[in-house]
Amino acid sequence: MPIDRLTLGFVTAAAITVLGIGGAVPQAPGPFTAAQAAAGHTAYLENCATCHNRTLQGGGEAPALVGNAFVSSWGQRSASELYGVIKASMPLGNGNSLAPETYQQIVAFLFQANGVVPGAAAFTGESTAKIASFVTGKTPAGFLDAPATAAPARRRAPVMPMGLVVAGTVKSYTPVTDEMLVHPADKDWLMHRGNYQAWDFSRLAQINTANVGSLQLRWVYGMDEGGRQQFNPLVHDGVMFVSNNRTNTVQALDARTGELIWENRIGPVLDNLENATRTMALYGNLLFYGATSATVHALDARTGKEVWHTVISTYKDDKVGGMTVIHGKLLVGLTRCDDRSVQDHCWIAAYDTQTGKQLWKTLTIADKGTQGGDTWGNLTNDQRAGADAWITGSYDPELNLTYWGTGQAKPSRQDQRGTDGDALFSNSTLALNPDTGKLAWYYQNAPGETLDLDEVYERVLVDHGNQKSVLEVGKTGILWKLDRTNGKFLDLAQTVFQNVWVKFDKKTGRPTYRDDIIHQKPGVAIASCPSPEGGHDWPATSYDQPDDLFLVPLSQTCAMFGAGSQLFYEMPGSNGNLGRISAYEARTLKPVWTFQQRAPFLTSIISTAGGVGFVGDFDRVFRAFDVKTGKTLWDTRLGTGVQGFPITYSVGGEQFVAVTTGTQGGSPVQKPSTMLQEVHRSQTGQAVYVFALPKQR
Description:
Helices cover 10% and strands 30% of the residues. The chain is mainly beta.
């Protein structure tokens, strides 16, 4: 196939995967010393463990770095190649940031963790020995339990006071009720994506196509630097609530002026990247925040004081995923729950909003003897992993069903995880009763997925007469339409070029993979369009209800996937445009318009009754566009990449638009980054920017 501007793309944590080589490997001393490996253990814990797990088992998009997976992808490649890849791309989004000797030590540690006996000569990064000539893939008993020396002080997060460091009280705050969540006021932004239906749409119309060109910056509030910024602010009664991923700090701001009201530094303070905390939730007088310690904190929204907290998982790398409140219950999805060294299953659970007590829990992995359990073959329960619930579900109050997407089975390659079936309930749409957690129906969008192309993203609820549908776009770029009363397949549309599925069953929508994907071989790269960045990823869609338009932020990259690193290239027909927005008629799924540009879009789209949509991108541009045509009506450049979830709200009769900037946006940022060498943006500058029309004098 033609490859335009073949690029050694960002070699993600998911790229450093490897397989079994079958048969015994003659044990030989490795090209490193014991002292290097010991130092590398400390360096690994400091720089790599937050993604790859302290036991090197991987998690999220990060694969395991030990065992069969490691050996097969890297076994026939040299030690110097592994060193070069890690040095160029790690830590995530910050390649070449460590000293060469530190990278050498990390590689030495990986070798010893894979059963290699240290040698007498130090590893310099130049060894041409094939990795399969000395690794076994078997971690020595107790090796990873050995204590590592303390991390150097230079890498420590700065010491700062913690707790309620700024005390204050919201002057006027109305408790959030079930009715307010079902019918949110236009002036507020009470939940992730604005309403239970996940529309990312506002009925505010003061800012419209005629005057949006006059937008002005009204205020800015700086956020903590570092961490994975992918945040959705919430607004209620003129108060904006924001969180800071790296320090787990929650703040209340005057949404009209940007004045800080209170600040609670919950902690922990992180040295490294962690899972993104995309949203919070409001109910009664409480604000719920999911910290990176897998702990949910309930704060008094008026004062910031903690009311209760509960640890939702004790597994080291598990994190809080999606979060919403239904009928006084806080529904939470678990993510990063992918450790196959223990039975670390992902789930969706409900908690009492007044006490934090767990009320029910529904696993997203089918164990032996349960519904769908046979779709994992003969794998033991502890080897069944994935199906993370890291995106907030939607809710239909009339049907009393909540709709959640799940991620791929782990490891993402089918041959590495040892399954040949569908691996339920990964890559599925789940319809649950929010009061009991009981599964009403499911639809698996991508059975047996094997290229890190998950279908976890927002489920958007749309009505056309008596037809109640749920729409979703996953990484393959397929726009799915299901009957949300029973899960029946209705229709689909291809949004971007894809070469993964060759056909779809007309009645069920079930896809069929290309033959070389079905017969995937260890260590052999497979062309994947879209790439694991995804045709669509976490930047969310918007349903413009007045015009029945479904607006989708899309990415146009492909990759050679599965041979130890990922080679990224531009999608055929994209003409070098990695970023794209397309509008579809929601009733028919017919395309209406498309806008393309070089830089990827890194925010969700929000549309408004004023006929204006808003979106931000990798190249620091925040723009307003006409939702009917896609024409740009206004734009401005901000301090760094514009990413997160824009919102709009009103205070005192004045409409505002808010958006966040930041770094470390996950796959949509990291995977195409080396294809965008012409784009220069700051690695600092995380903030909330708020815009409005000129003040009337």
